[in-house]
Design a protein that fits this description.
The complex is a heteropentamer of chains A (149), B (266), C (190), D (280) and E (666).
Chain A lengths: L7 E6 L3 H10 L8 E6 L7 H9 L4 E6 L10 H19 L6 E5 L5 H18 L3 H6 L11
Helix pairs in contact in A: 1-4
Chain C lengths: L11 H10 L11 H5 L10 H10 L2 H8 L3 H4 L5 H5 L6 H14 L8 H17 L4 H12 L9 H6 L13 H11 L6
Helix pairs in contact in C: 8-9, 8-11
Chain E lengths: L3 E6 L11 H9 L4 E7 L5 H14 L3 E6 L2 H14 L7 E5 L1 H5 L6 H20 L6 E4 L3 E5 L3 H12 L3 E6 L13 E2 L4 E2 H14 L3 E5 L1 E9 L2 E8 L14 H5 L5 E2 L8 E2 L2 E2 L11 E2 L5 H5 L4 H5 L12 E7 L1 E4 L3 E3 L16 E3 H8 L20 E8 L15 H15 L4 E6 L9 H10 L4 E4 L4 E5 L2 E8 L5 E7 L1 E6 L1 E3 L3 H8 L26 E3 L9 H19 L3 E4 L4 E3 L15 H5 L5 E7 L5 E8 L9 H5 L5 E3 L4 H12 L2
Parallel strand pairs in E: 1-2, 1-3, 3-4, 6-7, 6-18, 7-10, 18-29, 20-27, 21-22, 21-27, 22-23
Antiparallel strand pairs in E: 5-30, 8-9, 11-12, 12-17, 13-14, 15-16, 19-28, 24-25, 25-26, 31-34, 32-33
Helix pairs in contact in E: 1-5, 2-3, 5-18, 6-7, 6-15, 11-12, 12-13
Classes of the chains: A alpha/beta (149), B alpha/beta (266), C mainly alpha (190), D alpha/beta (280), E alpha/beta (666).
Amino acid sequence: MAEFEPKIVAFVCNWCTYAGADLTGTSRIKYASNVRIVRFPCTGRIDYMLLLKAFDEGADGIIVSGCHPNDCHYTSGNFHARRRWMAFRSLCDFIGIDTRRIKFSWVSAAEGAKWADIVNTTVASVRELGPYDEYKKVAKKPVKEESHG
Amino acid sequence: MDDLRKRAKELIDTSAVKVVIGYEQGTGNKTRALFVENSEVADKLIFDSRCVQNLAAYVTKQEVKSKGKMAITATLPVMRAIIQLASEFQVNDDNLIVIGITPESKIIDFKNLEEVETYVHQFQIEIDARNREILDKLDKMTPSERWKFWIDELSPCFKCYACRAACPMCYCSRCTVDFNRPQWIPVSSNELGNLEWHFMRAMHLTGRCVDCDACANACPLAIPINLLTKKMIEDAKSDFGGYQPSLKGENLLSTFKPDDKENFIQ
Amino acid sequence: MSSDPHQYVISGLGGEVFENTEVKVSHCYQCGKCSAGCPLSEEMDYPPSMIMRMLQTGNPELEEKVLRSFSIWVCLTCEMCYARCPMSIDIPKMMDFLREKAIEEKKANPKAKQIISFHKSFLDSVKYTGKMYEIGFYADYKTRTLKILDDMLLVPPMIKRGKLSIIPELIKDRSGIASIFRKTIKKNKT
Amino acid sequence: MTLGFYPGCSLKGSSREYAESVLAVVKAFNIQIQEIDDWNCCGATAAHSLNKELSLALPARVLSLAEKQGLKEIVVPCAACYARLSMTQHELLKNPELKTRIAEINNLEYNGTVSILNVIQMLDRYVTPNLESRVVKPFGHKVACYYGCYLVRPHEILNFDRVEEPLSMDTLMAKTGATPIDWAFKTECCGASLSISRTSSVGRLSGKIVGDASDRGAEAIIVACPMCQSNLDMRRKEINSYLGKRIDIPVLYITQAIGLAIGLDRKALGLQRHFVKVKV
Amino acid sequence: MAKIGVFICHCGENISATVDCAKVAEVVGKYDGVAISLDYKYMCSDPGQNLIKKAIVEKGLTGVVVASCSPRMHEPTFRKACAEAGLNPYMCEMANLREHCSWVHEKGEATTQKAIDLVRTIVEKVKHNQSLDAIKVPVTKTALVIGGGIAGIQASLDIANSGHKVILIEKDPSIGGHMSQLSETFPTLDCSQCILTPRMVEVAQHPNITLYTYAELESIDGFIGNFKVKIRKKAKSIDEKICTGCGLCTTKCPNKKNPSEFNEGLGNRTAIYVPFPQAVPNKPVIDKALCTYYTKGKCKICEKFCPAHAIRFDQEDEIIEVPVGAIVLATGFAVKKTDFFPEYGYGRHPDIITGLQFERLASASGPTLGEIRRPSDGKIPETIVFVACAGSRDEAKGIPYCSKICCMYTAKHAMLYQHKVHGGKSYVFYMDIRAGGKMYDEFVRRAIEEDGVNYIRGRVSRVYEKNGKLIVKGADTLLGAMPVEIEADMVVLATAGVANEGAEELAQKLHVSYDPYHFFAEAHPKLKPVETNTAGIFLAGACQAPRDIPESVAMASGAAAKVAGLFSQDELTREPLIAVVNRQAPPVFSSCVGCFLCMSACPYHAIEKEEIKNRQGEVLKTVAKVNPGLCQGCGTCVAFCRTKSIDIQGYTHEEVYSEVMALLND
């Protein structure tokens, strides 16, 4: 049986992680092709509802990534985002959303290798967890019964 | 109770306010909100342990606001809500007088909101023992078990929005749930729509909720949705050192500290 | 650390040093501050910074010289080098490893015989009594090194001052201590 | 709370006056103290020179025993033992695998709950606050406080005082009425671990220390380590022959100096046991 | 109905080697609203761009998706091309098929599928895009230069000479900075003050320069072209207009024993003082922390003697507010002091000094009038030791970097010593000699070869005093790390160059990034060395990293050129990717409830309150409003708004929502 290929959506900021992922490209570092990047001006712009929407629409895992603390292009967008994520993550955990499927990271424009690593480890860990059937059932998304190989 | 009625009459008679918001005897053993606009009606005012509805929810309602300056009988949760609303520019000394009621049913005449704030700040927001027990029980579950718990609990919700109407903090003129470009939250009352609605509401109340339980009390299906906000209060305490409604307007999620501690960002 | 794609790779003895002590010999930029501050460097055949340099080369001949050096035995692990190293290189920890390795490979410098005997006598005392029984240890050490007369002048005044006990104070759990030695040091090595 | 006491081998043998003076001072200040039952040698330099696991297993056994015996805090007057115990604590807490391996060797678990004090930390915590009011015979001498190696190094692990130019002993001695001198060899090594096996080096290393203290007018050298004391005291013949002159300033444990200042009996402090006569 | 054009680029073979571009074009071409979909070898080439322009005109496209490299690379190129063909440039977006797909994945179906997904996502986004117009903002053509050292002086003069107004502020009583403290300068040994003072005077006299000494930046508001800065002019307790600078007060002041900052503590100054004889302005200030009148309430001797009656004890700090269009940061550096190096004994022995103190000893205007004498007893040292890298390249002490200037000034110091003390012995302990620069290495060689300075390769472990000598313990690593001990009379430490105290605070005030050592960060290490990541704020000199004089001057001129370039236009054009608060019927309303939590969240204070009134002028509602000049477009407010009343152009709710939807649903 073919290995389960998780769908991973990445929400990243334009100035650090998007640029870092560009550097992964220019450095020709290979990583898993399961990830799809959505670009935002800043992690401060990333609405938590979008993360839920991604799960609604069938994502198995999510990456949220931006500038390291103190590196924010807008000085403090990432600090706001960090607080919001802390609250968001608590609530997810309390409601029973599998927080292992949401990876938060700081990837700077210089950390091309780190980006590849983040993607690869996320893909591997989500693959290990299997498809997010629990959520898909609630979201009335098709669940492949035998998909976990 | 006489003090309360006297004070209400005085405020109306001197035209200090146009309306006094309080409680009256409702049907059965219930109490309901009373809007005193002339001094005769003031005799209907009551206050006892049954009066748990958070009257602060009325001060942002257009119908009430349009009457003119208001006075409100306020227990501790109501006072907290008033301070939070003031920090969000919804009420101020020009349009609201607070008649405080202590746990011993004594009246406090507050001169201004600053005094209310000082009073409120004597007390921390604390989760009661019964709910703490439930939270502890939930904490001990696996995420999957919690997921099942919440899907089950929330599934009967038919989105009557009584919780929203009862909540003093849900005063938005347009709720996210009513937003349709894009449709963030499914309108239908299915499992997903219910989950997302209550999830979003809990997020919106993080750092703002005054723990008055009005939402859960208002729910016709007795869904314990207040557990969500209580959990957020608990976590705010451990993650950010807690919060208090404050006239300075420092909201928990709209501010930050550069050294906020987290342990999950890689 | 796990996300560091650049694994530290160095072959030879320097690599072994890293695996066993996490000391990266490549971190040394040869400023010489360790050698300058080492109280024993003038008695060493290679001062600490030279040892670092020799390991950096990865040259087997130089590595052999390191293991056979007197330096590693005369090092007192006084930690001065580590305290002042601008790169925080834990040289004493590395020295411990090199000593262990030198004994294992039977390459210990002949001049270090006395020092090694001292350590072994010391540990034997601990092994059999759980503690360092000074007279027994002295006797053992003197027999090992045949330096019977050295220091003997100190013994009577020490006994007079009550500084040496004639009877060893034994630990209760002697089998426990013996088992610790059994599990850590293979018999043939001591 | 009862303070645990790990004397270590020297304090039971060649440096028993250190133990005597520590216990005398502790008693004078009404501190509850209890020797760790069935303790063993920490392995000292010998163990870590020859075998890494042994050098961790021996101290770990001591810590396990202390923990089992309900001791939250132990005082380790010997600086070398203090460093060995602290380094073991550090290594074990840093590396869980190692912790498991050592527990296996020792047949004893250690959970890392014991806090390890050197003698100065112990004095600072329990004696210093009341010291000045207790002084009856101010220790009115110029003293060179000698810290040696293992009280301050490795600093990353011990995190005690400053690694260069430490001051804690000087501050403490000043409270007894002494005048601590500023000198250059506070933390230079005396060569103790080569004391027996390479006596020639020791004359030179210790000689520089005693020489500098004497040159700068010290009337006593104050130490907090049995190795340093034995070396500077018992090896005075080699020291003097290295220096080419006779220097007879005594070497006192800090607890002996404090004991004298608060009027304890000289014999109870073990002063008669020194090789260089204590005339101060 | 949308008419989207999709243009898939092969990027030579960079994309097409792993992505089946033709297939992508084919699949995407079938999507709703896609009017044309084609692939081409080089989209960014002229023919490639012409393909797009032609399609826009011929097909009447409402949106364009270029699937090629990273938008960070060519987004401006393609947006410009679209604009040239008459399509609003913000209707053009890019899908990143190269950096995020073809370069990072192996050739195969999964990679082509990912490319399809990425393009589809952007197509869906463009369907929701709106035409936007660039924002134009006016430019205030006055520059603020912070710091009056050589970098600040040079930047001020260059900007002023290009015809623009400059406000130069300096926290000390005089401009001149570290350079005014130096004796001679390497590699030419010309006198530092001789070349600096004419510049200082020029600053003071330039009609375009307003100089505020004893002044600091209080606060800043605004954005490029439109900053509003508040400057705190600390009270000098002197009426500068009346003071003639005669200096009588400084001779009469009874409070004389205060360590002089200018002489690095090697000399004293009075409480009312001019830091040094060539100071600009050459007028005294009263140091309130030291003055007997301010501390004890009695004295006023200076007032009694002042012939011009210029003393003003009641003077208070003054805050002035000025509009400026650009800012040059030239706040310089400091040298590491205190007991950072206890093993070297600095601060414990008076004859162990820093390199900057040695400059004062060697300077003709210094406390010893240029003779090298020991601070302890005034004797001329017969043996002197220079320790390089005292603090620099020391990871354990938190300064892993090379301070860059020390190798050169240490060689200079040793040389000056040999010139001044005949028969003296000098030693330099070094690890590497970094003398990259015009005539630099020759200079060091001269010290060694001609002046007989002894260079020993090894780091000093310890310095201590013994019998009136300073014992320096080192090792000669070129002799097998042989221990070396030198009995010296004086030791000079080349202490590390570090960021100024308060640099971090200033950077935060200005929203400028800084490195872990608190040096200000340039916007790009190679291509934007004088810009910061805050538009309109530039860097000059050693506030960015340790720099020598020629480099500081070059940087200052570079920053000045950037400022002049900015001032050459009357208006700036900014991207319209900013937040807006919605407005909706009837007639002008908003769903905003006016909770203003967005206000506290905004890093730029760009959110204001706006009253919505009816025809009678009664306030119906107070809502949030975004100041387009201040908003930088981070969108933090957007994610925060509960009523979804704020949205950000270019990344609207609908745009990002449709992106996510399209990503997961094919």
